[in-house]
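Quick start: read one record
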Amino acid sequence: MIARVFFKLVLTGVLISWAGPPAINAQADPDSRSWNQPVEPFRIIGNIYYVGANEITSFLITTPQGHIVLDGGFAETAPQIEANIQKLGFHLSDVKVLLNSHAHLDHAGGLAELKGATQAKLVASEGDAPLLEHGGQGDFFFKSRLTFPPVKPDRLLHDGETVSLGGTTLTAHLTPGHTKGCTSWTMNVEEAGRSRAVVFVCSVTVLPGYRLFGNTSYPQIAQDYAQTFRTLAALPCDVFLASHGSFFNLEEKREALKGGGANNPFIDPQSFRDFVKRFEARFDAELKRQRETPPKD
């Protein structure tokens, strides 16, 4: 179900962008708007807070020396993110670092606004940096059809490098395929006297139209996806978060957390393992399909 909805929305965006000028305004269609509905901000676990929309996620990670924001949503999501940070009692001026999972307009579109509002340093993967700087132009699949306000990273990351602030350290894990620089992040939080491993997954979906063989714009795409699944499968995970709320059952877990039970519903290691296996099986099936029936030019 998640994949069908995701593919439908992406296809809608692609069709709109083909029919008209570059899609800097992502809210022109009802499907995109449905991903960007306001959500009351809340604490997930430890020093991690949710400040994103209903489907397009954004996370605030607080420290005594300033804060980190992971992902900026659509350009239209940025004001929500800013308002949510302030609703939680934090100051925009205390946001010191911006991170990005991947350079698609629904996750990077708001970064330019957030960078201007906070004066934070943007840290991103070397693989996705050119897309960020050119506002999505030059994407291996979308080309220049789904653009967003350009933003220049202040630091380029490679696999295994870290970002540290105020005693909190996040580690970058390159998980390419969905984009060339798709980056998943890990960190540990303390909750009830225990350390919990947190994974923020970039994305592992194979979008409709992605060519896994003979892709001259991204020749190693199939190998990158395969390595990404191996990377994710090897990560320890107690708390599974991701770039899309539906990937980790955000709404269901948020409601359960509001219920005030003894156990934090976001501590759910099995959902991460199930997610990786489910999407790897989908990738394998698509790989097999394209091998047997190569896409036509």
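Residues 63 and 168 are 7 Å apart (CA to CA).
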